[in-house]
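Lab manual, section 2.4: Encoding a predicted structure.

Procedure: take the sequence of the chain (162 residues), apply the prediction step described in section 2.3, and record the output as structure tokens. A sample record is shown.
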Amino acid sequence: MSDPESWDIAISVLKGDWTGPDEATVRRAALAALGAAGPDGPLELSVALADDATVRELNRDYRGQDKPTNVLSFEAGDDPMPGQPLILGDVVLARETCAREALEADKSFDDHLTHLTVHGVLHLLGYDHIEMDEAEEMEALEVEILAEMGIENPYLEKPEAV
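Recorded output:
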């Protein structure tokens, strides 16, 4: 059984207009994702809060896409040494892109940040959305985790105002 007390979640602000409440939102979202889909035992996870310029550079250097994106996940990929925690990897979030997307979708910044954090952590846990069946599984898990946190399904289209 998973023990959140054995999870080390490091959150750091690299660049951008992030606040203490943003860090708390990210921590809650990471804990929820790990609680729903994480492995048993101790683990380490790093979440970096950055600006669009930083994420654009990472996206260009590691994914060959010269543009900012909302969230990037970098798996550690190593099996833990005996008696050591599993190191999942890093999630990097872009402040301006997160804020712009929340505004465009008429969602609260906290709800969107929660969704993107859950999404990024699930990538580190092996979930993906390249193939349709994988995307459906990942989205269903995201929706379930978010619902437990009181956040509506981010994949539903909002009806247009009349």
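Check your result against the sample. The chain has one domain: 4-148.
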